[in-house]
Fold this sequence. Notes:
Layout: H1 2-27, H2 31-34, E1 38-45, E2 52-58, E3 61-68, E4 73-76, E5 88-93, E6 99-104, E7 130-135, E8 142-146, E9 148-152, E10 158-163, E11 166-171, E12 178-179, E13 186-192, E14 199-204, E15 209-214, E16 222-223, E17 229-236, E18 242-249, E19 267-272, E20 279-283, E21 297-300, E22 304-309, E23 316-321, E24 329-330, E25 338-343, E26 349-354, E27 367-372, E28 379-380, E29 387-393, E30 399-404, E31 411-415, E32 421-423, E33 440-445, E34 451-457, E35 468-472, H3 488-502, E36 506-511, H4 520-523, H5 536-547, E37 557-562, H6 564-575, E38 582-586, H7 592-595, H8 598-603, H9 613-622, E39 636-641, H10 650-660, E40 666-671, H11 681-699
Parallel strand pairs: 35-36, 35-37, 37-38, 38-39, 39-40
Antiparallel strand pairs: 1-2, 2-3, 3-4, 5-6, 6-7, 7-8, 9-10, 10-11, 11-12, 13-14, 14-15, 15-16, 17-18, 18-19, 19-20, 21-22, 22-23, 23-24, 25-26, 26-27, 27-28, 29-30, 30-31, 31-32, 33-34, 34-36
Amino acid sequence: MAFANRVGFLLPCGFxxxxxxxxxxxxxxxxxxxxxxxxxSGLTAADKAAVAAWINNDHGxxxxxxxxxxxxxxxxxxxxxxxxxxxxxxxxxxxxxxxxVYVRGxxxxxxxxxxxxxxxxxNPEGAKVEVWSVSTRGGAPVSLGEGDFPALSPDGKRTxxxxxxxxxxxxxxxxxxxRLLSVHxxxxxxxWSPDGxxxxxxxxxxxxxxxxIYSDEHHPIVxxxxxxxxxxxxxxxxxxxRIAFTRRPGSGGPPIPLMKYERQPWEIWTVEAxxxxxxxxxxxxxxxxxxxxxxxxxxxxxxxxxxxxxxxxWQHLYSLPVSGATEPLLLTPGHFMVEDVAMAPxxxxxxxxxxxxTDADDVDRRHLFRVNVDEAKPKPLTSGKSLEWSPVVMSDxxxxxxxxxxxxxxxPGLLATNGSVRLLAQLHPHYPxxxxxxxxxxxxxxxxxxxxxxxxxxxxxxxxxxxxxxxVHGGPERQMYLGWHSMEYYSNDYALNQxxxxxxxxVLALNYRLGIGYGFDYNYPEAAGPRGxxxxxxxxxxxxxxxxxxxxxxxxxxxxxxxxGGYLTAMALAHNSDRFSVGVDFAGVxxxxxxxxxxxxxxxxxxxxxxxxxxxxxxxxRSSPVSSIGTWRSPVLLIHxxxxxxxxxxxxxxxxxRLSATPVxxxxxxxxxxxxxxxxYASIEKVDAAEMAFLERxxxxxxxxx
Length: 706
């Protein structure tokens, strides 16, 4: 009886502690929870019908969704069901909205071999890069054959695809593909004329390129304004009679010093589609910021060329009348960067996103704007603490876009006239959005006085474990946001940063120099990368910034990053193990000299040796982490997929071999057949779990905070 009384007395207290513990655990985030969302990308729409489509990646299962009837009818169109790593790209809707085409397979985020199959699931049968067609009303997709980069005819009945570096044509609803033409060179940039009677293309011939126009098998190809230059980006006039294109110098000429950025002069030309010498419409200036950077380039309206340039120090849109002008019209003035640009079907205006707005923190966000092609009067379409990107203007002037916040992952939506966004999809049930932190914009000074940018993820004070982590992005031409990211790769990193914060870590997502969003000089700094690694001082400054925060133990600051971020992680551990006690290096560059083709550098295809070649190679070695292995002390986790087509896996193999000859503790996670950007969700799970286990093992102990 006494025993029973004792048990009766103890049970309520014991169960209370147990229930409190279970409640605490139930409220804790898990990696699976923060990754429990589907990522939309590839938004596109029909030119003459209110039909839009996008790619939905749900835990590695990629499918195409369509929306019509003003967003009232939203449905999944394809029925792929496996996390097989086969990406979907090239999504295009026919002008009348009846069919769409897409590519399945390949690695289109790669630096090389993007059109080769990628077998990330190690399927014994291998993989293909294949073009498919499907009716927007539903039904089974039809294979149009192996190939890439599909171009739909204006009437939607024919599709040109690239196979074996040549164009092939096939009925869009299925049939036998036939080679369209056979000419010397590698063919790309296929563009149908608006009336569907001609096809423009670029024939790359190694040291120069031509623009050709194909009519039919009975007429020879017309080479428009051929020269010794790289002629690219053919754009048709609305009446199908003329073409605008860009021109850059061909190879050869005297060698240019390698230790400084090489200026890339370029020109805009127009020419009759029937041939002729062409007319130079505009030439870039003599400053470095006038260099060719690609981006938006279109023949707008009846007589305007709209293009992107850094010529005023910011990536902006410019408009040039085809009749000629001494200076192009700056359409988007201000200290911000224009990123995604969508041409309206009417061709008289564009919708774009930019890191601009009425809030000072908008420099680290994205909002939508509209501007006519002939007047510099941008109109804001969205604002606030949300983020919007990938706009597409539909035939009824509706804008479809991707929307996110700091706590809600990206979702497709339609823009209302009042600037609100009507979402076309929903989060998975029970997504823990309210448990995510809202990062804050942070700035601090680097050693040379430059103001450096980043976003700070602060856990609640009761959760802090005293440790801090610097996250360094790749690219390096990237910018991290005050919310979910417009690139799927960095959306995964944002989720991981949120999870780290939930585990008590203070996290700084560092926007070091070389990144975009803060002007030309920030994007193209002196002596960066292999020319001297000037951006590394921003990484050191980030460690100092974190160490100065209340509650952070300066002896427990870690670092992680992928690609270029992996390079900077390795630099941090090799040069400053005193500041960085641990790191995770995912697919990083570790030896710049191995990344160069020395034979090509010796000639630069100019037949002369650059005067500072040896200086470049010496500086590149000193700017490489492997040159400072002797001062590397901190443990590191090395991660790499061995079908990486952005950074050779040899970079990690070589580093591991060098570390093996030192006392440095290191661990390896090699992913057979996986890509640079992790094509399979199973790989993301494995990598994030390994990163978290490694960082927590080395950093997350209680106490020690100041």
